[in-house]
Design brief:
Elements: E1 4-8, E2 15-20, H1 27-64, H2 68-75
């Protein structure tokens, strides 16, 4: 199997000459795809933190014998 080949970019379709077989994106698109991946990764981390906060508040509400909504309405400060 050849180490290099001519293949199109998976994002823009521009032909990459003598690209590695495992290379999917041209140099211009690779930077954009990496930054998109970083944005998605940060959003997932924020979502994970939010879920753990909801689970913590839910446990506190159950300890007091209330539902999540009632507990938040009574104890959490209002936003805005």
């Amino acid at each position: 199997m050849p180490k290099y080949s001519d293949k199109p970019c998976a994002r823009c379709g521009k032909m990459m000459l003598h690209a590695y077989c495992s290379q999917r994106y041209c140099k211009a698109c690779a930077l954009l795809v990496r930054s998109d991946d970083a944005i998605i990764s940060r959003a997932k981390q924020r979502s994970r933190r939010a879920r753990s906060e909801i689970a913590r508040v839910n446990a506190l509400a159950r300890a007091e014998g209330k539902t999540y909504g009632c507990y938040v309405a009574l104890h959490e400060p209002r936003k805005g």
